[in-house]
Give the backbone structure.
Amino acid sequence: MLVGVTLVTFVLAHVIPGGAARAALGARATPGQVASFNRINGYDLPLWDQLYRYLQGLVVHFQLGYSYKSNQPVKDLIFSRLPKTLVLLGLSTIVALVVAIPLGIVQVVRRNKPVDYALTGMSFLLYAMPDFLIGLLLILYFAVDLKWFSISAPNASTVQGILADPRGLVLPVLTLASTTVAAFSRYMRSSMMDVLTQDYIRTARAKGASERRVLYRHALRNALISIVTLLGLSIPVIVSGAVVDETVFNYPGMGLLTYNAALNNDVPLLLGTTFVAAISVIVGSFVADVLYAVVDPRIRYGRR
Amino acid sequence: MALEPDALTPEQTILVRDDSGAPVAVTAPGAPVGSEGSLVRQIVRVFIDNRLAVVGAAIVVLMVLFCYLGPVFYHTNQTNAQTALLNSTQNSPPNAHNLLGTDDNGFDILGRIMYGGQTSLEIGFAAAAIATVVGVLWGAVSGFFGGVVDAIMMRVVDVFLSLPTIYLLITLTVIFQASEGLLILVIGLTAWLVPARLVRGETLTLRVREYVQAVKVMGGKGSRVVLRHIIPNAIGAIVVNATFQVADAILILAALGYLGLGVPAPKTDWGSMLSNGVGYVTTGYWWEIYPVAIAIVLVVVSLNFIGDALRDALEVRLQQR
């Protein structure tokens, strides 16, 4: 996996039309400037040698190159931003789960009643709205009209500074959570319905367990298993969503860094953020897999 | 003997012996999904049964007509920024001349929704088509051959699945200059992974079925088995996924438009329009935000309704519940 992601970023760096030198120095660079840029950055070496050096730099020093724009190491830029994005991702995922699971249960308890239809309609609507639109509407009502929260996210440079300003965090977290809430609650509803048709639920009812006990002790725990699977699968979606979310709220995380890199044609920085985003997805999916084994005792990796 | 009716092809009848040894005829449930005709008939039935799907389909059709035939009746200048600036006021609210007002360049909003809608719908449908074709072939080949081929092809899918789409899209649109064709290509080529996995899964269950074995025994080539037998039988899942792909492509394009990486001027798309409009969110120019937002949401919701209805109808597994 890691090797594959590395190869993809390496290939992307080498398919830039006109070469990396043109991208960095601009169209008016003289052939001499291009040649010296290539020599300094090792672009004149054979491709395999370049790949070897790239991998060596990556593995030994976690070297991702230098930003064209700010001339700082990509590594430093990303690591100063990554924790803030992780705070945003973590909080919004928790919010999404806390909201979506009860919603899904309500829909199952009141299935095919007005509440169910209303919530289904709402989740369709949330799903169909572009993320940035949700963010902007939230800003419009809660920050501009009601003045409950501030318009832009906390701009502090440290994680502590950001957590110290919860009023600024509310809207970005809600926005990022909104799209996953739609998917999670739909899924929660269908997996609860699924579980409720199982034989052990009928058994539980037959032995006289109350409807409450059946729902929470028997059905919910089994339905949660599939939510954990969905959580693992939605990590790339959430990480992607953070880019738009951070841009809307001017939240100084990795997504905003990527957006600015895109505006500046800063290819090494873009490749760096893409690489780190992919790594965080892999790590996230791994964590979801571990959780999966914790939630479902039937699954034990390696021992069959 | 325990016999799973699922193991048979639809409507295939075979004789088995029950526990007492007496022969019993077992017929697999479900309609055959092998031929084009039955698929069309099934889809028609979905739309008759499901009112939401009818509404959804009507909205999508109307929206396509609106975007392509609308400009025939409602003439507006959407390409020349200079004349737009000269001939009309900027940011003017809806009036008799500009039914939905104008944007900050003096372009008529109603006409612009049609014009941008053409791009958004074209990219949405074309990207979904590319994603589906590439994904289906990839998944079918991978599942059919199995073994090492399958392992390698699926690891490629895993690698791309772990690259968050928007990062890859941003990088690709920056490296290559954005254009309508490029956007179709990159959105399509980042979205083929889901159909690939889906079709591989279907293929793995289909390739051990008797009729596929029979084709092989009769000397049918691999390409024939995949194209004529496996893909047509997985078509239900493929069609359902393709519907959602169009909706997702339109949303992804909107996100790219918001980041300023949409179709370059003088063309536009709904995402770029909305991105332009939300700059005026605090000044109260609602006509630059809500009409185009409603267009996006309507199309995406409709496509989701259609997809849900198709899934209910085409996926036999769900029907039996």
Summary: Residues 1-16, 25-35, 316-321 of chain B have pLDDT under 50 and may be disordered.
